[in-house]
Design a protein that fits this description.
The protein is α/β, with parallel strands linked by helices. Helix content is about 25%, strand content about 20%. The protein contains 23 helices and 27 strands. The strands form 7 sheets. It has a 6-stranded mixed sheet with strand order 5-4-17-16-15-6. Mean pLDDT is about 95; it is low at about 685-693. The structure holds ligand MGD (2 copies), iron/sulfur cluster and molybdenum atom. The site of one ligand MGD has 32 residues, from strand 16.
């Protein structure tokens, strides 16, 4: 239904709500709601709020399609129970009673360590995303270490700067005169930074993109440096050697606010221009030009992404980059410095969020990147609860994850808004409400506005918020922990119960009234102008970041490094079931290969190939392109396996290998080879309904 087709008997209104998705922008969305002749109100149109300083009137290419997701014909609207391999509709009473009985048996026989939650940031809402963990913590279930995305970056940042992790205010970016977009495809993954970058460029800034392949951000930037994957620390050390030798570093800042700079300076000595060029794949003149630009342009703003951390040594690589603004003193200038995340500025009182106060040092822990192994029968997990997450697609070693979820002796419960491949593997699918249907509080990791959404639409079908489901299960199991049953109001009051200056004047009433409220930051927010939050109060250069080659080196058997970065039209696997968005991404997942690699491996443009790694094998169509460099293949997007020729996720190839810091994921670490699929055998591949003809 479009606006023009609203007839006289229909009424419409507009609300402004925060986008709940895992994206730094946390946009304020203008949602047009129309009440049809059937009396049911529906969201028909989504755009950006023009009054919001960050959203600036546009939603991204993905979320304008949210109504199609909300009303997707396959959205689960009733509880489903798998009986003899088929889903049958059951009542909530029956689903919850059955699950509670099974849980009681499992608890009595195997104890709480046999019950695992698996969740991530399908919603960024603090209630439906984080607070619901209270159920598992009250049971004493294992703690899930939420490492799939950000912990390598967090650990790297905290080594240098301590906690909380603070970043440059995006609204200050127009003051920068040199901008490095380093290991981030920001036009895709942080699109509401773009207007600030463009403003800076109008003010005279030069924009550089440092990324192994050419994507939207490289085309937007003034200069693209096609760095070899996993070599960012080498580049930083090589640049720093030139900067220090030229006297471009800020000695006064380093003396006042730096710790152990001498050790860093000594490490740089080993990085001659020739060696840096050899390791990074950049030319000597590229490195020299970048060093000069960095050394002589103040303020310099560096936007780093989590992307570059997804390598074996990704923590050290990111850490090296984040030290540059301390070397150059950029933190003292408005618009200068580095942003990994702005999330640390949201100084909420999180002590009892998700009943975190119940976690004990003896509580067993499961690193979420190691789900495939955690679900092996001998590990003793008997019940798996998945919410806000799609592990059958997004977790490493996804074929083994799928096998674990499907174990006949495993109770697998999936709370979902979409009939994902994870949901299809479940014993129970519990229909979840969307952000249009439940209230929540949202922080951001790309700006400094805290926002609140009311529940706007009634739930579709019998969908229920995650918080309702875990409250109902808690009652059935006799859980007495009060925080599990908190209302939105109670949680809001708790989270805002702090004297922290960033939250001064922010009350539940103000949030309700205004929807989105800027944190009470100082007029000039220069978080590390005088040091950091380490024990010494200084930016720590030791342990010195070093360059290390990955253990899994390329060789004749595995000549390509596979990168699997985000797609422009999906948000992780969210939106991967909408035809209009899979079409915009080319209809099916494709592997980008450099012409010379294609020639060597005898693969042709448009042909199907097997992509083989040490973990698994998938079938994909080849796109030959010089957007990638030699020795690197790129598969954009965590597509639904259902959209691929073989039904598998790209993560059938990726391994549980953890990063050097923070136990993070290594999605860009995989070495692969390509094996052409015999054209005569291409028709033998199983047919999958999502593949576009
Ligand atoms: N459209 C869209 N937006 C998204 C997402 C999405 O799926 N789609 N996902 C959201 C989520 S969950 C996150 S965590 C964020 C960030 O999501 P990330 O996956 O961290 O993506 P980026 O930060 O953009 O970084 C990806 C870029 O890093 C590059 N890269 C890979 N290895 C290296 C390396 O060794 N060195 C350097 N310099 N670069 C490297 C890749 O080529 C790619 O261009 O984006 C969020 N926004
Ligand atoms: N190969 C490869 N794999 C990757 C990445 C990569 O770059 N390459 N990126 C990684 C990164 S950075 C991340 S963050 C993870 C993300 O992985 P996930 O956190 O799994 O993110 P999504 O794939 O978007 O799936 C989120 C699911 O949550 C559901 N959901 C949303 N809101 C709610 C709600 O309120 N209630 C319930 N019950 N469900 C809800 C959505 O319908 C959706 O199916 O993937 C990782 N996987
Ligand atoms: S996904 Fe990101 S860019 Fe798109 S509307 Fe949501 S917050 Fe904004
Ligand atoms: Mo992420």
């Amino acid at each position: 239904m479009t606006r023009a087709s609203i007839s006289a008997s229909e009424t419409s209104r507009e609300v402004v709500l925060t986008c709940p998705l895992d994206c730094p922008d946390a946009c304020r969305l203008k949602v047009r709601l129309v009440t049809g002749q059937d009396g049911v109100e529906r969201a028909v149109n989504i755009g950006g709020d023009s009054r919001h300083p960050i959203t600036r009137g546009f939603a991204c290419a993905k979320t304008v399609h949210y109504p199609a997701r909300q009303y997707h014909p396959e959205r689960p609207l009733y509880p489903l129970k798998k009986v003899n391999g088929e889903f049958v509709r059951v009542s909530w009473e029956q689903a919850l009673d059955d699950i509670a009985v099974r849980l009681r048996e499992i608890l009595d026989r195997y104890g709480p360590q046999s019950i695992l939650r698996y969740n991530y940031a399908g919603t960024m809402g603090l209630r439906e995303g984080s607070h619901v963990h209270a159920f598992f913590r009250a049971l004493g279930a294992p703690e899930l270490e939420e490492t799939i995305c950000a912990t390598a970056g967090s650990a790297a940042w905290e080594l240098g700067y301590g906690s909380p992790r603070l970043g440059v205010d995006p609204e200050d970016v127009p003051h920068a005169r040199l901008i490095l977009l380093w290991g981030i495809n920001s036009l895709t993954t942080n699109s509401h930074l773009t207007p600030w970058l463009t403003q800076a460029r109008k003010n005279g800034a030069r924009i550089v993109h440092i990324d192994p392949y050419r994507n939207k951000t490289s085309l937007y930037a003034d200069w693209h440096l096609k760095i070899r994957p996993g070599t960012d620390a080498a580049l930083v050390l090589g640049l720093s050697r030139i900067i220090i030798a030229s006297g471009w570093h800020d000695e006064a800042y380093l003396a006042r606010a730096g710790e152990d700079f001498g050790a860093f300076r000594a490490e740089c000595e080993a990085w001659s221009l020739a060696r840096t060029s050899d390791v990074t794949g950049l030319s000597e003149s590229e490195i020299q030009d970048l060093a000069r630009a960095l050394g002589t342009t103040r303020p310099t703003y560096i936007r780093v992404g989590y992307g570059m951390t997804r390598h074996e040594n990704g923590g050290s690589n990111l850490r090296a980059v984040t030290l540059l603004p301390a070397l150059l003193g950029d933190w003292q200038h408005r618009g200068g410095g580095c942003t990994l995340t702005t999330s640390g500025a949201f100084a909420l009182n999180r002590t009892r969020l998700g009943a975190a106060h119940l976690i004990e040092s003896a509580t067993p822990r499961v690193n979420m990147n190691e789900l495939a192994s955690a679900l092996a029968p001998e590990r003793g997990v008997k019940a798996l609860f998945v919410y806000n997450c799609n592990p059958a697609v997004v977790a490493p070693d996804s074929e083994r994850v799928r096998a674990g979820m499907a174990r006949p002796d495993m109770l697998t419960v999936v709370l979902e808004q979409a009939m994902t491949e994870s949901a299809r593997l479940a014993d129970f699918v519990l229909p979840a409400t969307t952000f249009l249907e439940h209230a929540d509080l949202y922080t951001s990791y790309g700006h400094h506005y805290l926002s609140y959404n009311d529940a706007t639409l009634p739930p579709s079908g019998e969908a229920r918020p995650n918080s309702w489901v875990f409250g109902e299960l808690g009652r059935r199991l006799g859980i007495e922990e009060p925080s599990l049953y908190w209302s939105m109001d109670e949680l809001l009051t708790e989270l805002l119960a702090t004297e922290h200056p960033h939250l001064a004047g922010i009350t539940p009433e103000k949030l309700r009234r205004e929807g989105s409220v800027r944190l009470s930051l100082p007029e000039r927010f220069l978080p590390y102008a005088n040091g950091a939050h380490t024990p010494s109060g200084k930016v720590r250069f030791s342990p010195v970041p070093r360059h290390t080659e990955p253990r899994a080196q390329l060789n004749a058997s595995y000549p390509l490094r596979l990168l699997t970065p985000p797609a422009h039209h999906f948000l992780n696997s969210t939106y991967g079931n909408l035809d209009q968005l899979t079409r915009a991404e080319g209809g099916e997942p494709q592997v980008l290969v450099h012409p010379e690699d294609a020639r060597r491996d005898r693969v042709t443009d448009g042909a199907l190939v097997q992509v083989q790694s040490e973990t698994g094998c998938i079938t994909r169509r080849v796109r030959i392109s010089d957007a990638v460099q030699r020795g690197v293949a790129v598969l954009e997007g965590t597509w639904w396996g259902l959209s691929a020729p073989d039904g598998k996720s790209v993560n059938a190839l990726t391994a549980e290998t953890l990063t050097d810091l923070g136990g993070g994921s290594t999605f860009h670490n995989t070495r692969v080879r390509l094996v052409p699929v015999d054209p005569d055998r291409q028709n033998d591949l199983p047919h999958h309904p999502n593949v576009q003809p």
